[in-house]
């Protein structure tokens, strides 16, 4: 039997190519199978979790011994998920809370004018807005609120606190405050209708200096700033000071536009970084204001300067080497985005932000090039007018009294924590000036008058800013 044998030959290059293609196809099939399995596993895992939520909901809905509010139950479940993030900047806003949120970014609302936040189930003042009833009442960044109108707020969240603090113009609210290691004290504040122009300007002719104060980043802030800068560049002043003290932040888009006014179009304002490490550059889209390059730029920060304030300061440090003075800023290096569901809103942290030179300032803040402390502000406390402070009294309150008298021009050489003859003499001089019986003791009418004078002095005199101006003009 003859067997026909045929020899098949293949080009070696073609053979190698065939083997390579086969290996690639096999790899793709293997990877596709793995990802399909992983996807199905994740879907099943998620489905099981949602089944658990649905089962609990139906169990409560069907068998709870009282009628339930289904919407409230769902909102509570969503609140619980957001709270599970343990992120003070993420929250789920109901229709009422969304209305308050919209008010805060438009600059129109009725209340005390303070940004508050929740940290570890405790409520704190983040920043009192400049010129607001909160600032006039003496509230400071990092003040802890433990009570509202005599009731403890232990266990309540920040939205509950906001509802109680806000109210109609002319009504009052009493906050119980803990400041550092001091004993709790009450502050009564009269609510007001607050429209905050977010930018104000002061020109100091004899110092060749302009001061622009930015109180928050709300809708239209960059336009307000642009209008002021158009005036500033037309004078012959050498120095421009940008005051961001107690500015809690706000809209990132406004900060980016404001950065453009100083550094120009198509410059990196910040870098957003997601949890997988992917980065996105946020760039300016606004032209630089002509004439600013001829002025020194100084930025003033304190521990109440947060979020968008820090984005702005960090960008100007990196791009034009702007000088930062004051104190370290708050240190909020994360960004929130929003997703609206009907009349409700989910606000959550979706990325961290870096300066153009990729610095991350979270929990560290922006460090000043020159530390300029706010003198008496650091020692500010609320004195109890029912308490008597006199010679031989001791403590933190005495140090505040002495710092206050010194800042008002009375003779106190070295403020300490002891009420001595020097304190008594200075206090008598104060009492005589304000037509109060000169007993040399601090209580009653003397205390009330002293606190009012001190707050007016801080608002109008601003010794810290005087030191900033001195630094800027002599550098």
Automatic annotation (TrEMBL):
Give this protein's Gene Ontology molecular function annotations.
endopeptidase activity; serine-type peptidase activity
Concerning InterPro entries, the annotation shows: ClpP/crotonase-like_dom_sf, CtpA/B_N, PDZ, PDZ_sf, Peptidase_S41A, Peptidoglycan-bd-like, PGBD-like_sf, PGBDSf
Please give the Gene3D superfamilies that the UniProt record associates with this protein.
Answer: 2-enoyl-CoA Hydratase, Chain A, domain 1 (3.90.226.10), 2.30.42.10, 3.30.750.44, PGBD-like superfamily/PGBD (1.10.101.10)
Per UniProt, residues of the PDZ domain are 98-166
Which GO BP terms sit in this record? proteolysis; signal transduction
Q: Which residues cross the membrane?
A: 12-37
Pfam annotation, one family: PDZ
Keywords of the record: Hydrolase, Membrane, Protease, Serine protease, Transmembrane, Transmembrane helix
Q: What is this protein called?
A: Carboxyl-terminal processing protease
Q: What is the lineage of its organism?
A: Bacteria, Bacillati, Bacillota, Bacilli, Bacillales
